[in-house]
Specification:
Largest sheet: 5 strands, antiparallel
CATH architecture: 2-Layer Sandwich
Shape: globular
Number of domains: 1
Distance between the termini: 6 Å
Order of helices and strands: HEEHEEE
Helix content: 10-25%
Mean pLDDT: 94
Number of strands: 5
Length: 89
């Protein structure tokens, strides 16, 4: 990943996903489009195309900077603070 565009790579931790789906949507009986995994704490939230945007809400509440796609076959990351997508090299 490109450390020149993201200054938060040191916040990536080995995390255990909190759920197999968006934990907040599951709690309220809502649906999601795609899933995102917080790389600080393991929170699984739904993407911004989902009605509730729980991954972004998680960032707004916690300020955990990096999440990665939790979709099969996708391995990109997003830094909320630097607003940049990162892909493994």
């Amino acid at each position: 990943m490109n450390a020149e565009t993201c200054t938060h790579l040191d916040s990536i931790k080995e995390v255990k996903p909190s759920s197999s789906g968006c934990e907040d949507c599951l709690r309220i009986g809502a649906t999601w489009v795609h899933l995102r995994l917080c790389m600080t704490c393991g929170h699984v939230g739904c993407c911004d195309d989902s009605p509730n945007r729980h991954a972004s809400k998680h960032f707004a509440t916690t300020r955990h900077p990096l999440m990665r796609s939790f979709e099969p076959g996708e391995d990109w990351y997003w830094c909320y603070i630097d607003e940049v997508m990162l892909e493994p090299e």
